[in-house]
Design brief:
The structure is a homodimer. The first copy, chain A, is mainly alpha-helical. Chain A contains 10 helices and no strands.
């Protein structure tokens, strides 16, 4: 666990999980309404009837608050999925979010992914609190597949599992003018991800 | 060729290719400086010493002008590449742009890809003038591979060739904090794209 996470967990323990969930929901609403750059701690404080001092004490800053709110919206942890096969694990992972949630999160992630390029502190929080934990969980999914003998330990595609999945998610709207859905992602997993990893899909 | 392209070609024929290249370069400079939403036809007119009436007559509007400028910056056409093997074609395609140009274009494409979601006319121009022609050219590359017997006609990954390549390009910075380079894209082609298509990489 990173130092950033430790510090934030210690800070956060002063508020209840319910209050925390309420705060995160308000932050995501604001993010949808005005975007990252125009979102202010003043607006979060007003919307959630908190003091700015509390927000800064609990989260350190806007970047960390926004990224934690995004992470909190993710329904279920990749680490809890263990179906006994890589295909089973990957198909289950894409059903953790229903299509409606996925479409809402997809536009939020797009906005954040864009904003990181002009906000170094957001980039750092995004990588440390969202990208890296997700990469680590995918590595565990992949390691289990290797341990089961499904994927060769020297398979070059294993390094690119997150690029493949995030790439499919990110390009669906742009290329096909359609939201990423569970059905699309399952089809992509069977057509691209598993064959690239040398895993039979039937 | 689409109707939009026909009309624009007819309009554009009134200016010289040199003047056109100069205009497109100025549009991309402005796009880098202020972003799509803040870019105005007034600013383009001032920067290029043209009249706004000329710009509108030649390009119809901001969306079409910006997308044409992006397309013009692409060095070389996919359709001209025909090496005799799919691996050869794909490796050649990623060397059409040197790493420096690729990094510059990558941040421009990111900005545009973001702006399309709040600008329906930009989305239309982007799809009609950039995405669809590129998809068509990749389809031709893929059809030749099928005709040569390299890829099976019913290979499910053939529908996703552009998602794979654009996805790799788009996720490289976000996931690895590194710009997409020719070396990365060649490695991704060998690790993911060719195996997904059932093509041996050696």
């Amino acid at each position: 666990m990173s130092e950033m996470t430790d510090v934030a967990t210690a800070r956060r323990s002063r508020i209840t999980p319910e209050r925390e969930a309420e705060l995160y929901a308000a932050v995501l609403d604001l993010l949808r309404e005005v975007g990252y750059d125009a979102l202010t701690m003043d607006a979060v404080a007003a919307r959630t009837r908190s003091s700015k001092a509390t927000l800064y004490r609990q989260w350190g800053g806007k970047a960390e608050l926004v990224v934690k709110a995004m992470r909190h919206s993710k329904p279920g942890r990749i680490a809890d999925v263990d179906t006994g096969s890589l295909r089973g694990d990957l198909h289950t992972l894409v059903t953790l979010e229903d299509d409606c949630t996925m479409e809402r999160n997809s536009s939020l992630m797009r906005a954040l992914a864009m904003a990181v390029h002009s906000n170094p502190d957001l980039m750092r929080a995004f990588k440390e609190l969202l990208v890296e934990p997700e990469m680590d969980e995918f590595k565990r999914v992949m390691q289990r597949a290797i341990d089961r003998g499904e994927v060769r330990a020297d398979c070059p595609a294993r390094e690119y599992i997150v690029h493949m999945l995030v790439g499919a998610f990110a390009t669906r709207t742009l290329i096909d003018d359609l939201p990423p859905t569970q059905e699309f992602l399952r089809s992509y997993i069977d057509a691209v991800v598993l064959p690239a990893l040398g895993v039979p899909t039937t």
